[in-house]
DNA sequence: ATAGCCATTGACCGAATCGGTTAATGGCTA
DNA sequence: TAGCCATTAACCGATTCGGTCAATGGCTAT
């Protein structure tokens, strides 16, 4: 696999994104190396030259995505931010910047989470266990967050759930993730946060 | 195809749901008749005995889902309801009752909307054109709806968008749709609607 | 100029799976 | 007991699968 790493990063990314897309939309079994090769514009043989087997490529992608996500969080997340909605904005900006580098990454990780093929099921489990036990979103949104700003009778956890589903719903409806789509998403998220903040916070915190 | 219709409805539904699930999650090309047969617990040959070809089965499913959806709307939708959130509740109850009959139906219809395989692309287009031109959700939510109840500065269209994404997000995160899941969804939707109504409507309308 | 190296590929492998067919089975009816 | 019909196992040729390999061709070092 050293052969792959010595490629220019551009070319690496083309291949990675093609693989993330194919595996993410079709699952492990139904995504074929031919599909990935075609999507990446290279020959099937080249992919085997780099990764040896389909399984090795798949598992490598999982580790890679985990690392990218972790690095992005370590770099951008700021414990000093205590406002609930600022935290959510931060989290969204992390996810979006990840998707600007690898548009199919989150949907791939999601598909991995539900993958059930015997050839990779066990390996996925051990990889996930060796990584940290999340929920990423909830951990980031609630650890050290000031939720006293909410009006009485509003459940911040419900607001968080709404937000999570909302982003997932948007992304599931936009199967082709261009930079334009992601900027749109950014704007919609901002609108949404403003709407929530304005109506869910006590007046003195506006 | 008369052979299929003369089956007891239970058996018809097992086969239909298996096919909706397979086509919905894998798309036309990657969903095989063997997959569907296995999921339905019958032999592959029997499916060909009923529907002749894979394509015929697929196109039949599209028409069937369209009809079920139309019937459900005609039966349950009530023009007299003018409250925005009551309309949304009505719409959600329609979608959920449809999914209680055929859990994979909406995700199947969504996948049909994005299907791009040459073998069925053209046929899908003509079927959709012969059906009505929606957006179902928007049409139902806004035609004859009283939006003056909203506080100033709140855009009902944004609220609608949020709601749509939210439901899609929930459903995309729950790949196995049991009756229990759907009841959960129902509760969450109610919580969400109450939250929105309480905070987005002017006080005199609460 | 040329020798050699290495990324890249088309052609190929046996095995599996594809959409679809067919002959045989077996339960039901008359 | 004759016949009908739903259902299936076994099979068809074609395609695609994961994976291999020999040949190509561009690059570098001499």
UniProtKB/TrEMBL annotation, chains A, B:
Coiled coil: none annotated. GO terms for molecular function: DNA binding. Residues 32-51 bind DNA. The keyword Transmembrane helix does not apply. Keywords: DNA-binding. InterPro entries: DNA-bd_HTH_TetR-type_CS (IPR023772), Homeodomain-like_sf (IPR009057), HTH-type_Tx_Regulator (IPR050624), HTH_TetR (IPR001647), Tet_transcr_reg_TetR-rel_C_sf (IPR036271). Residues 9-69 form the HTH tetR-type domain. It holds the Pfam family TetR_N. PANTHER family: ACREF/ENVCD OPERON REPRESSOR-RELATED, ACREF_ENVCD OPERON REPRESSOR-RELATED. This is Transcriptional regulator, TetR family.
């Amino acid at each position: 696999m050293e052969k792959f790493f010595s490629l220019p990063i551009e070319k690496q990314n083309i291949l990675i994104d093609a693989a993330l897309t194919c595996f993410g939309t079709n699952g492990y079994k139904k995504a074929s190396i031919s599909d990935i090769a075609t999507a990446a514009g290279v020959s099937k043989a080249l992919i085997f030259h780099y990764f040896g087997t389909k399984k090795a490529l798949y598992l490598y992608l999982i580790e890679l995505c985990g690392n990218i996500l972790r690095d992005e969080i370590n770099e951008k997340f700021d414990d000093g931010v205590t406002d609930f909605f600022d935290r959510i904005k931060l989290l969204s900006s992390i996810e979006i910047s990840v998707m600007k580098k690898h548009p199919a990454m989150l949907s791939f990780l999601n598909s991995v989470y539900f993958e059930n093929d015997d050839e990779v099921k066990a390996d996925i489990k051990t990889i996930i266990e060796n990584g940290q036990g999340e929920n990423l979103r909830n951990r980031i949104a609630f650890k050290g967050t000031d939720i006293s700003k909410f009006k009485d009778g509003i459940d911040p956890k419900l607001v968080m759930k709404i937000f999570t589903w909302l982003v997932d719903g948007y992304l599931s409806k936009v199967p082709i993730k261009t930079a334009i789509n992601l900027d749109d998403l950014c704007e919609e998220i901002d609108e949404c946060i403003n709407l929530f903040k304005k109506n869910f916070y006590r007046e003195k915190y506006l």
